[in-house]
């Protein structure tokens, strides 16, 4: 039996009515949670339909056999329209910024709730979700994750890889690639 405190926190995060015996429901809730996290930064510029976006992203996950890649981030950009810069009034976000957040946060939640998922997922190539905490407080950058380009994203992931090579990692996170940085610093 799982620890009741963990189950409580899991239900707070994934919704009270989550059926942990239904792996597809857990996966959907992980994606939906990642979508909500992404929308914190995108809410003024992007007004896509949550359920449609989440379902289409799950199709991308299935097509890629849940194997993380930066190509998946690129593929996910199509969910946010055709223009790289999404503008509304004087505010804007980039499709790449939104995509990296959705993809990386999904993998973070899939890792956390892996015991409830019936997929074999290799987390070793995962990237760290870029957000204000990671960019500002850890990497000392004034970049905004919502406006990040592919080139800057790769630069920051390489910097994170360098920092992780200098860090002794706990067994729990040593095999999850750059995602480990998020667990250490968020």
Q: What's the gist of this structure?
A:
The protein is mainly α and about 190 residues long.
Describe the structure.
The chain is mainly α and 186 residues long. The chain is built from eight helices and two strands; from the N terminus they run ααααββαααα. The relative contact order is 0.13.
DSSP strand (E) fraction? under 5%
Overall 3D geometry? globular
Widest sheet: strand order? 1-2
What is the total tally of β strands? 2
> H/E element string?
HHHHEEHHHH
Biggest sheet character = 2 strands, antiparallel
Count of helical stretches: 8
Radius of gyration: 16 Å
Q: Note poorly predicted spans.
A: none
Helix content bin: 40-55%
Oligomer status? single chain
The secondary-structure class comes to mainly alpha
Mean pLDDT: 93
Report the span from N to C terminus: 28 Å
Features:
186 residues, mainly alpha, 8 helices
Write the layout of secondary structure elements.
Layout: H1 4-14, H2 23-42, H3 50-63, H4 70-76, E1 85-88, E2 91-94, H5 95-112, H6 132-138, H7 150-165, H8 179-185
Helix pairs in contact: 2-3, 2-5, 4-5
């Amino acid at each position: 039996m799982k620890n009741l405190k963990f189950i409580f926190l899991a239900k707070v995060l994934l919704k009270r009515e989550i059926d942990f015996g239904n792996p597809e429901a857990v996966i959907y809730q992980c994606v939906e949670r990642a979508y909500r996290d992404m929308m914190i930064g995108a809410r003024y510029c992007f007004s896509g339909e949550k359920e449609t976006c989440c379902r289409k992203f799950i199709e991308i996950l299935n097509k890629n056999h849940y194997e993380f890649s930066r190509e998946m981030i690129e593929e996910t950009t199509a969910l946010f329209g055709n223009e790289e810069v999404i503008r509304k009034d004087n505010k804007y976000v980039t499709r790449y910024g939104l995509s990296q957040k959705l993809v990386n946060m999904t993998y973070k939640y899939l890792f956390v709730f892996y015991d409830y998922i019936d997929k074999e997922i290799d987390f070793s190539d995962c990237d760290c979700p870029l957000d204000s905490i990671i960019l500002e407080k850890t990497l000392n950058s004034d970049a905004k994750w919502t406006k990040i380009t592919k080139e800057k994203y790769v630069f920051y992931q390489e910097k994170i890889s360098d920092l992780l090579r200098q860090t002794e990692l706990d067994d729990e996170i040593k095999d999850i690639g750059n995602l480990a940085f998020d667990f250490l610093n968020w």
